[in-house]
Write a structure and sequence with these properties.
6-stranded parallel sheet; 319 residues
Length: 319
């Protein structure tokens, strides 16, 4: 039976730090390095950007994956990871403080390579972070993704033991070797003012994530197909016509991506090679708002029908 992996394009679904996602994540290397450097150097970094710009994908498949890879390498080479990174976004939970503490415990345990027994039961978020950081013996990085959902589900809860009460304490505790990154939609950025009274420099270090530039978008479209071809059986590679890539990128830049019609996207097969082609002069094969979303639409139209599904105060602009 011929082997075909799932589609290399995620579409609207964020990339995760998983074997099925990371190999197909391209176009954000420079942003990954910049965000990672800020996370490691600053106690608190705010990352913001438009909905769908790729914040979660960058943090999961980019930053967290790279740091975890470094930690595993350190563990193998020196017997200790030296760091651990937690990505937390379970804001719908009734108690985000407990959820975050549990996520930290799980991540540090994995970073240390196995079962770890804490000294005692932590009574607060600060206690938990201090205890697990001490067991880690290295730096702890906490990424709070989709932070706008905290205000949606827990806004106004500022009593004892709440995240609103405990988060400023841990940010301001100079004894903790813990750095934080808050990722939030740009339309919810002002909600972080809720922390300003107790974290006066809450906006002291922030980054704006921009959409992919043209070359990065090209890489995000083309390179996943290269990886896909590496995984499929020999004799059944898939190629994307350069003209199609150029047309997609041009329409995204000019805002002309329009509704695909029957016959615009098709597949041509010859000599064992499957070619994704676009038959319209405009090059549009689907309605999407970004290069990856358009590429995913083309893939579904041209190849996807034959595919099995598979679940799987510094101001900077990250461009």
């Amino acid at each position: 039976m011929t082997f075909r992996p799932f589609s290399p394009y995620k579409g609207l679904t964020p990339f995760q730090d998983s074997d099925g996602d990371v190999p197909f994540f391209f176009g954000r290397e420079r942003e990954r390095e910049l965000v990672e450097a800020n996370l490691m150097a600053s106690r608190l970094t705010v990352l913001y950007g438009e909905t769908g710009v790729g914040k979660s994908s960058l943090l999961h498949a980019g930053v967290a994956h790279h740091l975890r890879t470094l930690a595993r390498g350190n563990l193998e080479a020196r017997g200790e990871p030296g760091l651990a990174v937690v990505v937390f976004d379970a804001w719908r939970d009734d108690d985000p403080v407990h959820g975050l503490s549990t996520a930290v415990a799980d991540e540090v345990t994995v970073a240390l390579g196995g079962s770890v027994t804490p000294k005692d039961e932590a009574r607060s978020l600060g206690d938990a972070l201090g205890m697990w950081q001490e067991l880690l013996g290295g730096d702890l990085y906490v990424i709070l993704d989709q932070a706008e959902e905290y205000f949606l589900y827990h806004g106004g809860r500022n009593g004892r033991g709440s995240f609103d009460a405990e988060f400023p304490d841990v940010v301001n505790d100079s004894d903790l070797r813990v750095n934080f990154l808050l990722a939030v939609r740009d339309d919810s950025l002002a909600k972080l003012d809720a922390f300003r009274k107790r974290i006066p420099n809450v906006f002291g270090n922030y980054l704006r994530l921009e959409h992919l530039d043209r070359e990065a978008a090209r890489s995000a479209i083309v390179e996943p197909v290269v990886e896909y071809n590496r995984l499929v059986d020999e004799g059944e590679p898939v190629s994307i016509e350069p003209a199609l890539v150029d047309a997609v990128l041009e329409q995204i830049v000019t805002g002309k991506v329009d509704v695909g019609q029957t016959g615009r996207g098709s597949v041509e097969s010859a000599n064992g090679e499957v070619r994704i082609i676009c038959n319209s002069s405009s090059g549009a094969c689907g309605t999407r708002s970004s290069a990856l979303e358009v590429a995913s639409s083309v893939w579904r139209r041209c190849v996807g029908s034959a595919e099995p599904s598979r679940s799987s105060a510094t101001t900077s602009s990250v461009r």
